[in-house]
Amino acid sequence: MTMNRQGRQTAGEAGTEPADRLDTFTGNRGLRIEEPLIFEYGRERETGVDLPAGSEEESLRLGGLERRKPLDLPGLSEPETMRHYVRLSRSNYAIDSGIYPLGSCTMKHNPRLNEAVARLPGLSDIHPLQPVSTVQGALELIDTLAHWLKVATGLPAVAMSPKAGAHGELCGMMAIKAAHQAKGDARSIVLVPESAHGTNPATAALLGYKVETVPAREDGTVDPEAVRSKMSPQVAALMLTNPNTCGLFEPDVIEIAKAVHEAGAYFYCDGANFNAIQGRVRPGDLGVDAMHINLHKTFSTPHGGGGPGAGPVVLSEALAPFAPLPWVVSNGEQGFDLVEHAAEGDETRPFGRMTAFHGQMGMFVRALAWMMSHGSDGMRQAAEDAVLSANYVRACLSDLMSVPFPDHPSMHEVLFDDGFLYESDISTLDIAKALIDEGFHPMTIYFPLVVHGAMLIEPTESESKASLDLFVATLRDLVIAAKRGDRARFADAPRYAPRRRLDETTAARKPILCWLPRRPQADAAE
Amino acid sequence: MRYLPLSADDRAAMLHRIGVGSIDDLFADVPRAAWLDGPVDLPAAKSEIEVERRFRRFARRNLAAGDAAFFCGAGAYRHHVPATVDHLIQRSEFLTSYTPYQPEISQGTLQVLFEFQTQVCELTGMEVANASMYDGSTATAEAVLMAHRLTKRSRAVVAGNLHPHYAAVVETTSRLSSHDTVFLTPTPEGGEDLLSAIDGTCSCVVVQTPDVFGHPVDLKPIAERAHEAGALLVAVVTEAVSLGLMVPPGAQGADIVVAEGQSLGNGLNFGGPYVGLFATRQKFLRQMPGRVCGETVDVEGKRGYVLTLSTREQHIRREKATSNICTNSGLCALAFTVHLTLLGGVGLERLARLNHARATRLADALAEVPGVEVLNKAFFNEFTVRLPKPAAEIAEALAGKGVLGGVPMSRLRPGEGLDDLLVVAATETNTDEDIDVFASCLKEVLA
């Protein structure tokens, strides 16, 4: 191998090797392998793909636009490629290897049945623009999933195409804007509670709305009077997460919806936390006009290291006519049709199109397989187990850690703040990093922003009691150590992860975003 | 229920520890008016065998591309994906992890993203790339918004030969965010005049190459004209494999390059999930949307990777963010990167040549069918034919003979007098026999 490691992995002046650790010749430590970048294998003329021998055209018909400079990308043989990525994978934490209690992310078990059915050639090897007569099963599947989503949420329509949660938010807010425009009503303000996820205000701003914040009550929930006092003919919508990002069900949600509707505005619900209530509450019964459903959260399509997600949006009667193209219609005996263009004289008034094709079909298959496996009884049980597990974790920790909103039961996630650390010089971040050394993925930290040093724990329904007990016992031990002032246990954490704490400040100040062969600037600085 | 580990005894013990009598007590905040006493009206739980059987039934009602002579493209392409790719993306540690919020235990995902960004830069000829977008169409809409921010103008000019669905996504986003957009009319024969549409009021011109009819577009004069007018060139590529053989947009003066990356590593999947590529110039970095991975060191001085420049993003900036995007298309980006690592630059070029050669052979075969006119003088792996009958009818008739023979332009742009046009693609997956079958079936259905 001709990889260039010299002066690279020890770049900068940071840190010295702890004395208790012996250096190895390779830099590896047992199963923990230091893996270079593919570009450092340095073999430009290699390829790991044998293509069929074929007539490679002598004269190109590219209109004179052929590449002049050959691509400077190394190729690796198949065994090298396999080994490279398997080694990289081993420095990742994953649900399959342990509890992943990342609040607001719903990291639940990903059944492999769903992967298997998503790979049936009749579902994976079909083109989005094949004649619709040749994809009747695909359209039936989308229609079936749409039905399940509508029944589960108690809303009459669903836009299937949004590609992720934030894309679903955009879709819902576009429908709201289109509905106001259709009435000739140019409203300019969107209300967002202060505990909202950052995508909510970002989405509203993208559509040109001015964002106004609704403060939370002392108990972490939204006061309908606070909403009512903010209402005006200028308010287009309220974007509310329910259960909210503090893990609480908004007890006055129906009252809030009423206040919104009375002012001629719409109620957008962020459905990120639908896992807590599926089968127990239908958002349609709460007065919701639009809500995205993160199929990758509630319905367990794999998170894939950060996507792909899927974010279908259920819509009320008022917003249904504005749903974006395309959609599937069932013609009974005649099968299914796909509406891809607005037809004149139709009562629908689609606001437009969110994406090139029909949405995240691969995710639809997996989500529907999850729903059919659970059935309506299992979906309700999943929500109950998720809520039970979060409250169990809370009950086991609340004598040691601080619960900022003790007046309400938690839903599927429990929020702590860092009040219990005030006497120590240990931070939320330190607790998270020490959990890594104990073999856990930490909880969500510093979100939501409404409490100081937030720790948001979402165990999901996938954990056994034994798993929860070990997590709780570990956290208790860490908190006791923190209160005792056992600084050493935290300051250097994580010590046993593939990397120790990384310098994020320099990464942002002097961004290095791709590999460069000799990187002249950096070398000059060294 | 096989996915739920808690037993009835566990549940009882946990309720006891919490100090409540029943699970209902934990839902006490739910208003009575919305309280459900039992499950919603959907079927009950099913065993693995039953679910599998149901999905086989869905699958059987579709004609899989692999079971047909297959020539559809128009933004989604059927390439051969090495078995290694699908194995690697199903590694638990890639498949069931999330956004690398804790970089110390996410270096696998982060290093992959760093490799991905580097590959995207090299392919497109640009200086910086993000960690991916949802797909090519949404990346295009984001590119237009970025151009508005950079130029402080709000009027985009969109080529008539941009994929109509991409144009629709740009149109929707622009209209609902109160921006002005000029959509030119399509030029199926190629040679679209974009220069006269660019003036000092526009933020960007959006051009696809090869365009939706398959014509490669010389971006250089367009970039020059755009830059003279103080506007940016947004180049769109829907077939990433073309970059193996064609001059990259970055070398022709593009300021933002967006692409659909599905062709590498990702199957057709009826339109999604796919992976959007997004690349730009270093100087525009702070206005680039989406996640970005950067290199740094840990406290021991070891090289490592983190998500960075998050001050552009919604979770920090909220309503002032560059975009509302939160996730990327991580696993699809991994598939892209593994496939491209296997291919290498040499392999990608060879693959691209093979695609071009297949398409050349196909074009020559179809040109000999009576009544069929190939519109393109130049193309990569996709071109447009004019038929003596409505293309949608012909596509349907061909499907009846087991040939998925391309995408009728009327499917993408109905009612615009383009009904006789069929967009046809060929890739390395097509054999000589496929091509002969297509040509002879086309002859039959036209007869």
Task: Summarize the helices and strands and which ones pair or pack.
The complex is a heterodimer of chains A (526) and B (447).
Chain A: H1 78-89, H2 112-118, H3 121-124, H4 136-153, E1 157-159, H5 165-182, E2 189-193, H6 199-206, E3 210-214, H7 224-230, E4 235-241, H8 253-262, E5 266-270, E6 290-292, E7 313-315, E8 327-330, E9 336-339, H9 361-397, E10 414-416, H10 428-437, E11 444-445, E12 455-457, H11 465-484, H12 487-491, H13 504-509, H14 520-525
Parallel strand pairs in A: 2-3, 2-4, 4-5, 5-6
Antiparallel strand pairs in A: 1-7, 6-7, 8-9, 10-12, 11-12
Helix pairs in contact in A: 2-9, 4-9, 5-6, 7-8, 9-11
Chain B: H1 8-18, H2 23-26, H3 48-60, E1 69-70, H4 83-89, H5 92-95, H6 107-124, E2 128-129, H7 136-151, E3 155-158, H8 164-176, E4 180-183, E5 204-208, H9 220-228, E6 232-237, E7 256-260, E8 276-280, E9 293-297, E10 303-307, H10 314-317, H11 330-367, E11 373-374, E12 382-386, H12 391-400, E13 403-404, E14 407-408, H13 409-412, E15 421-425, H14 432-446
Parallel strand pairs in B: 1-13, 3-4, 3-5, 5-6, 6-7
Antiparallel strand pairs in B: 2-8, 7-8, 9-10, 11-12, 12-15, 14-15
Helix pairs in contact in B: 4-11, 6-11, 7-8, 11-14
What does this structure look like?
Chain A is α/β, with parallel strands linked by helices and 526 residues long. Chain A folds into two domains: 113-369, Aspartate Aminotransferase, domain 2 (3-Layer(aba) Sandwich); 376-506, Aspartate Aminotransferase, domain 1. Chain A contains 14 helices and twelve strands. Chain A has a seven-stranded mixed beta sheet, sandwiched between helices. In chain A, strand 8 and strand 9 form a beta hairpin. In chain A, helix 2 runs antiparallel to helix 9 (361-397), helix 7 (224-230) runs parallel beside helix 8 and helix 9 (361-397) packs across helix 11. The longest helix of chain A has 37 residues, at 361-397. Chain A is globular, with a radius of gyration of 26 Å. Chain B folds into three domains: 8-60, no CATH class; 65-80 and 345-446, Aspartate Aminotransferase, domain 1 (Alpha-Beta Complex), CATH 3.90.1150; 83-339, 3-Layer(aba) Sandwich (Aspartate Aminotransferase, domain 2). Chain B starts with 7 loop residues before the first helix and ends with a helix. Chain B is an alpha/beta fold. Chain B is globular. Chain B has 14 helices and 15 strands. The model of chain B has no long low-confidence stretch (mean pLDDT 97). A seven-stranded mixed beta sheet of chain B has the order 2-8-7-6-5-3-4, with helices on both faces. Classes of the chains: A alpha/beta (526), B alpha/beta (447). At the A-B interface, helix 1, helix 2, helix 3, helix 4 and helix 5 of A face helix 1, helix 2, helix 3, helix 4 and helix 5 of B.
